[in-house]
Each structure stands twice: as C-alpha cells, then as structure tokens.
Design a protein that fits this description.
Blueprint lengths: L2 H13 L2 H8 L3 H15 L4 E3 L4 E3 L1 H20 L12 E8 H18 L3 E8 L2 H9 L5 E6 L9 E14 L20 E5 L4 H12 L5 E6 L2 H9 L4 E5 H9 L4 E2 L8 E8 L6 H12 L40
Parallel strand pairs: 3-4, 3-5, 7-8, 7-9
Antiparallel strand pairs: 1-2, 5-11, 6-9, 6-10, 6-11
Helix pairs in contact: 1-2, 1-3, 1-4, 2-3
Length: about 325
C-alpha cells in the first residue's frame, strides 16, 4: 500500500466522484480507477459501489476513511523543507474566492506568485458568493480558498490562517442628505432605501446583523452579488450600501462615495486562506507560505489593526475573539 493509494481513496470519498477526484489530483479518471482497484485488491474489500451516475462508499470504505485521513495528515507534517530554486518547482494549484475578492484583494498576490514560480500552474477560479467558496474547498474544486474568519459553515475539516482584516463601511452618494452629517445613529438611516448584497455573501450577513441589532426592517431597493454593481448603484443615488473598506477605498478617496459617520467596529472580520490540511500538496503549502510572507501585496486597509476589544459578530459574549491558525507549519513547503 502506498500513500498515493490512500490519497486517491480519500479524494474520491470526500468529493463523492471519481471524475472530481481525478481533477483535484491532476490525474486521468482511468488512473484514479486503477489506483482504487489496486487498493481494493490489496485490502480484499470493495471501497466504493460504482454506477453510471455516482459512486457510493462502502462500509469498509467508511471504516478506512478516518485512518487514511490521519495517516495523510501525519505524512504531510513530516515532509522535509525543499532546497529547490523557485524555477525548479513544478505542479498545479487551484486557488480562488468570490469575483470581488479576486479583483480587489488577491490579484496582486496571484501575479507575484506566478512571476516568482513560473513553472507552477496557478488555476484561478472565482465563485459567486462566500458559501460557494467554502463548498468548493470541501468538495475538492479548490486547494486553497480565501474566506472571512470564521467562514459560514465552520466545517471542522477546514482550517484557516489569518492574512488580514476588513471593516464594513456604510456608504452613500456624496449627494445624499446624510452624507455630511456627524454623529449619526443607526435609527437615523432606518427609513432609507438600501442596496445590499445577496444572501450567501458574508457582507449580507453583516448588514443583516446590523439591522437585527438595531431593530431595523430595511427597505431593499436592489440586491446583487456584484460588488462593482453595488458601488455604481450607490454612487448614482440608488440607496445606502454596506461595502467592505477594500472595495470602497478608491471611490472614497475620489469623493464619489462617502462613508456615513456611524460606528461599524462590530462589523469587522478577519480574512484568511482556507484549506483542508491533508489535501495540501507541496506547491499548495508553498503558495500559502508565500501569501503569509507578503502582506505588502494586499490592500493597505486589510493590514490595519482591528478595533480594540473586537470580537466577531457571531461570537457570544462569553467567548474570546476568533483567531485561526494553520494545523501545520506552512512556512516549510
């Protein structure tokens, strides 16, 4: 039995599909099938029931799965640091997050990594919303995804490392009657129209928390999963929006949007790279270490400290602020 046999088995079990596992492992589907066949022959047990539409894990497979996952995690932790030069690294990594996050936060990181490691294929994917990014990590479509901390599902298989922070700003057109008002309270915007993110996006959860906390039933003028559209609709006076600071910074500087003078300290989040430890390949670990060591590649606002005493809005009063750390040392690919 080889580790690659267990890696293939775990990939199929977690993806629920031979074809998805083949894509995740950068193998042909026939190679995946042959690998599992050899493992089943060695164990003298069928691990999956195959049919034309899906594969179903057997009882023997369910018994093997936690042991295989544990062995792969232990092997990953023992991998030695490599002395390869950047151009000697080869492989493929699938990274991604929402379209807006890719555009505003992570694009420079992708570019810099690709220039530093020219022979690693960086497969950049975009998702429609935060929850989709988490699902793609769990199902094996992404090796690393960028998510707020804590991410929506809080599945224990996913681990995260903190790379920055963001704050939600409540923004309006400079022509809005409240644009220059000082010391506003939440009740002052209760009767306004709002341009909001669609449900499933973390900034919609933040705005919904704000409304619930202050007893506001918002009048929604429009909603979208497109940050650029929300920016534009707000600028042309369609309503008040809740935007991340990294998405509003340029328009605020240009005077095309104004942040209302309302305290949003409780609408902050940590930003992190999310992954499943035992699936992390050498090049995935390399990418994660690169991201952790290059905060200069992220927008300046993401490196500002969180407000004193900050805790995530989902945390109860008796819990400490959420801090995510990797399950293994990502500094050594």
């Amino acid at each position: 039995m080889e580790f690659r046999h267990l890696q293939t088995f775990v990939a199929i079990a977690e993806c629920g599909s031979f074809s998805l596992a083949a894509e995740q492992l950068n193998m042909s589907q026939s190679a995946v099938s042959q690998t599992i066949r050899r493992l089943e022959e060695e164990l003298k047990e069928p691990l999956f029931l195959r049919n034309a539409r899906q594969c179903e894990i057997t009882e023997a497979g369910r018994n093997l799965l936690p042991q295989a996952q544990s062995l792969l995690q232990q092997r990953q932790a023992l991998l030695p640091e490599s002395d390869l030069a950047p151009e000697e690294y080869q492989g493929r990594i699938r990274v991604g997050t929402s379209t807006s996050g890719t555009s505003f936060i992570w694009a420079r990181l992708y570019q810099a990594f690709g220039r530093t490691y020219p022979n690693i294929k960086l497969d950049i994917r975009t998702t429609s919303h935060t929850e989709q990014t988490a699902e793609d990590i769990l199902h094996g479509a992404l090796d690393i995804g960028f998510l707020p901390i804590p991410y929506p599902h809080r599945d224990p298989r996913i681990r995260q490392v903190v790379l920055g922070h963001h704050r939600t700003l409540i923004v309006v057109s400079p022509n809005h009657p409240l644009a220059n008002a000082k010391g506003l309270r939440p009740a002052d915007i209760a009767g306004e129209k709002f341009v909001l993110y669609e449900r499933g996006i973390n900034f919609r959860a933040l705005s919904d928390h704000f409304f619930a906390l202050h007893g506001i039933t918002p009048e929604i003028a429009s909603q979208s999963n497109d940050t650029h559209l929300i920016r534009t609709l707000t600028e042309i006076e369609s309503g008040i929006a809740f935007l991340p600071d990294w998405a509003a910074a340029d328009l605020l500087e240009q005077g095309r949007l104004v942040a209302l003078d309302i305290n949003t300290d409780d609408l902050c989040e940590q930003l992190g790279a999310a992954f499943i430890p035992h699936r992390m390949t050498r090049v995935a670990r390399l990418f994660l270490a690169f991201a952790r060591n290059r905060p200069d590649l992220f927008p300046a606002v993401t490196q500002r400290p969180l407000p004193e005493g900050w805790r995530h809005f989902t945390e109860t009063a008796g819990q400490a602020p959420v801090n995510a750390v990797a399950a293994f040392d990502t500094q050594h690919p």
